[in-house]
Structures are given as C-alpha cells and as structure tokens.
Write a structure and sequence with these properties.
single chain, 431 residues, mainly beta, 18-stranded antiparallel beta barrel, two-stranded antiparallel ribbon
C-alpha cells in the first residue's frame, strides 16, 4: 500500500518497555518525594519542665530538690499510614546534694524525692494506622501508655522521668461506632528511677516481663461509658525483698463513668469501678492471694461557680498478708499528693475517703482545687491519718504554664506513716 511503512520487528516491544520504565521512574520518584515530605514535614518535640520540690518528713532531713527535665524529639508525618517518633529525655539538678532521690548511694537521711538525674531515650516507636480498616492502629517500640484513669496502667507523669513501656499496642473499633478495643503486650517497663546500681536498689530498676493488657471501652450514651479490662502482669522477680505480688498478678475489672445534666448549668458526675485481683498462677514465687478493689465517686459542677466531689476507694487486703497491687499506676494521682501511700497501705490494704472543692476562678487560665483525705487500713480499720492538699495552676497559653502544689499528710496512730509536708513549684514550656 502506497505510503505505508511497516514498523521494524520488535519496535512495539521497545516502545512499551520505554513507556513502562518511565512509569516506574515516575512512581519511584513519587514515593521518594513522599518519604522526604514525611521526614522533613514532621513535628519537632520540645518539653522543658523546671521544678522546685521541698519535702519534709518526720524523722528525716528536709529535701530541696531543684530539677530540670528536658525532652527533645521528632515525629514524622505518616506515609502510607506509617509514622515514627524518637525522643530523648534528660533530667538534671544544679543542686543534687539538696535532696535524696531514693536511690542507693545518696543521702538516705533526707526526705525522698524520686527524681533521679537521668539521660535516656524516652520514646521511640513506629506506628501503622488505617482508620478505614476498622480503626486499626498498631504501634510498637518504647511508648507512653495511659489507660482510663491511670489507676492500673499509667505513665507516672508527675515525676520528671516518666514511666514508659517497651511494647506492642493494637487498637481497633471492630467497625462499631464509639467502641475502642485495645491489646498491649509488654516486654519491659522503664521505670521512673532509670537503671540504678547497687543491690538495695534492684527493686527500682526497669522490669523485664511478659505482660498482657486488655481494655475495651464503649460509649453507650453521652452520660454513660463502660470499660472492661484484664491486666495479666508477669514481671521478672528482681530480688527476694520485692513483694511477690508486685511481680505477678491477674486483675479483672470494670469501670463506668459519665455526667448527667441536672439543669442547663448543673451537672452530676459519677464513677464506679470494681476489680478482682489474684496471684499470677504461673509465678513459682508468687504469694497465693486474692483481693478486691472498689472506687465510688460523685460530684456536682455548677457553671461559673465551680465543682465539689466526694469519693471512696478501697485497696483490699488478703488476711493482712497481701493487698491489691498497682505496680504500673500513676500513684501520685491517688491517695494524696504527699505520696505517703504509694505502697497501697502495705499488706493490710487501704481505705481512702476523700472530698474535693474546685472553685471557678474569674481569670482565664487560672485553676484552683482543694482535696481532703481520711485514711484507714482495710484489715482492722485503724486510723492512718488525714491529708490536706491544694493545687493552683495558671496556663498562660498552649506553650507555657505554671503550677503550685502543697500537701500535708498528718499521720495517725498505730500503723500510720510518718507525717510529711510538701511544697512544689514548677513551670512547663512545650512546643
């Protein structure tokens, strides 16, 4: 046919190869650009907290702890649902001899302030997230875990060196609106003391383990949230002086909470929680025990006036030999800011009746709260003393805040703890 030129044999294939090669190079460049954007377009993390803590316990010298915590890190933007974070933390004191950090080798004649000088990688993790896959989130590495009210699993955020978990965390809503199901496997807990040396400090070191956390929460309605949880703790025993049930325990519980509108300006809040705890059956050194936990709390909040609340918590005992243990809790949040009962009352357990008043301050960013505690042991009901706490805060903006906290624990008789007074002043800058 006139004007028709037949293509050379194989030319179609070469053209197709060049076309697919071009598409491959374009795809590779697009992926490379996304990776660069995820790394360069991430979020820098900066958190600096300066604190002065004055602590004076009966029978010990007064401590004046001046500490500075600095956290510096970086979090990438997600790429194909994957993101990462790396954060370092440094706690330093210009006057380390002014207080006892509760670690062996320092001056134990002083009142304890558990803020050791530490430099460490605080968090490092990789996260995979696909909301369209039933709200799937999968995070592995060293991470912060806070479940519900921090009563059982928290980060001890009050202390300068927070508690973190080397773990894998799976979250999903199972395709159900307002449901969150979580599973966590923990192989090490990085505690607030760092890695102290010395045999008497062994109980304060990081704890290797094979621990499982299950937590399912469902928002039934605006005034009702229901949570069920199972916490199976199996930690490596660090020395013979550590209570056996601090190392291994199985806890099964539930929690309900919410707020009911009484009127346009008045709300009634409530919390009810129960848990049953028993020994870790797989731990050969475990104490054979079981104990019960209860927490009931209610409060009223009146707009432009403030709020009041009352509550009752029981950390039950087993024949005075063992009590409910919460080794991974944010203990400072519970049973008084003086930290007199971080051991949950010892083997005899603890009962804590408490009340709070939080007036509304007519100044933006300012908060004020007063709390009273009355303590008894759970075994015989002995009076363990009272505590009076107060906290005032001023949030200048989202970056800068100030706080003052005071606690006075007045020890009772018989088996009570020594009286202690604490004054804390701190400022925090975040970016």
């Amino acid at each position: 046919m006139d004007g028709f030129v037949r293509p050379a044999r194989g030319s179609h294939r070469r053209i197709a190869d060049r076309s697919s090669g071009g598409r491959g190079r374009v795809g590779a460049k697009a992926t490379f650009d996304k990776v660069v954007d995820a790394l360069a377009g991430g979020k820098p993390l900066l958190d600096v907290r300066l604190r002065w803590e004055n602590a004076d316990q009966d029978g010990l010298q007064r401590s004046n702890a001046v500490t500075v915590r600095t956290r510096l890190g970086y979090q990438t933007k997600p790429i194909y649902g994957v993101s990462g974070l790396l954060e370092f933390e440094n706690i330093a004191s210009p006057l380390p001899s002014g207080y006892w950090d509760t670690i062996e080798g320092n001056d134990s004649r002083q009142t304890g302030v558990a803020d050791s000088e530490v430099f460490a990688a605080n968090r490092f993790w990789v996260n995979f997230e696909k909301p369209e896959w039933a709200g799937l989130k999968l995070k592995t590495g060293r991470q912060r875990i806070k479940l519900d009210d921090d009563r059982w699993v928290g980060n001890v955020g009050w202390r300068q060196n927070e508690q973190t978990y080397d773990s894998t965390r799976l979250q999903t809503d199972l395709g159900i609106d307002k449901l969150l199901a979580q599973y966590m496997y923990v192989w090490e807990v990085n505690r607030i003391f760092g890695e102290p040396s010395g045999s008497s400090s062994a109980g304060k070191r990081d704890r290797g383990q094979s621990t499982h956390f299950f937590n399912v929460a469902y928002q039934v309605a605006d005034p009702l949230k229901v949570v069920g949880f199972i916490y199976l703790i199996d930690a490596n025993r660090v020395n013979s002086s550590t209570p056996a049930n601090d190392m291994g325990s199985y806890t099964y519980g539930m929690r309900v909470n919410g707020a009911l509108p009484v009127s346009d300006e008045l709300k009634l809040s409530y919390i009810a929680s129960y848990a049953y705890q028993e020994d870790d059956a797989n731990e050969s050194n475990s104490l054979d025990y079981h104990a019960h936990y209860y927490n009931l709390e209610t409060g009223l909040a009146l707009e432009d006036i403030g709020s009041i609340g009352v509550g009752f918590e029981v950390l039950g005992t087993y024949n005075g030999e063992a009590r409910v243990v919460t080794p991974f809790a944010t203990g400072h949040k519970w049973n008084g800011f003086a930290d007199a009962f971080l051991d949950n009352g010892g083997g005899r357990g603890l009962r804590d009746f408490y009340a709070s008043v939080a007036p509304k301050i007519p100044c933006e960013g300012v908060s004020l709260k007063f709390i009273f505690h009355q303590f008894y042991d759970d075994k015989g009901g002995d009076n363990l003393g009272q505590e009076y706490d107060g906290v005032a805060g001023y949030k200048v903006n989202k970056h800068l805040s100030f706080l003052y906290k005071v606690a006075y624990y007045d020890g009772g008789k018989n088996r009570s703890k020594p009286s202690v007074v604490k004054n804390i002043l701190q400022t925090t800058f975040k970016f």
